[in-house]
Amino acid sequence: MQLANVHERTFHATPDQIGALLADLDAIWPAHITPAPRPQGGLLDAPPMLWQEFVRPGAARAFRVVAPPGIRGEHWFEVWRVEGGAVLRHTIAGEASGEYETIWRERIEPVHDRVLEALFDNLGSLLELH
Predict the structure, then answer these.
(1) Most buried residue among 2, 92, 101, 102 by CB atoms closer than 10 A?
(2) For residue range 64-99, what is the model confidence (pLDDT) as tens digits?
(3) CB of 71 within 8 A of CB of 94?
(4) CATH number for the domain including 113?
């Protein structure tokens, strides 16, 4: 099953301001929904997945899913300037197989959607303080 998920919001800020906040996921992560990803031997533990950060051209931050074997994909943040501010987009592209097709649809994607919208809310609140 193909995975495709996009969240996007425009902020009254510069791409640099948004990028600086993205550099510290702990500062913007909505921990009341699920714990922030934790470093684990060069990876980020984001149960039930492990992510590896990598450089993706044009992305402010990018991660590759390296476990479990039933999910393969990448997700990344892009930021670009628009009139009056900047757009932040988070994209997932990948695939789920076997039992992870159901796990993705029923458990991971709904939580992911809540986390991303709350993360964008938190980022917006921090930008308003500056």
Answers:
(1) 92
(2) 999 999 999 999 999 999 999 999 999 999 999 999
(3) yes
(4) 3.30.530.20
Provide the b/e sequence for 39-51 (b: ≥16 CB within 10 Å).
eeeebbbbeebbb
Q: Which domain holds residue 20?
A: 2-129
Helix extents (H) in the chain: 15-22, 25-28, 99-103, 109-129
Strand positions, DSSP E, the chain: 2-11, 38-40, 43-46, 49-53, 61-67, 71-82, 85-96
Residue type, 81: R
Query: Alpha-carbon distance 129 to 34, whole Å?
Result: 24
Cα–Cα distances in Å, from 85 out to 12, 61, 68, 71, 127?
A: 4, 19, 37, 35, 11
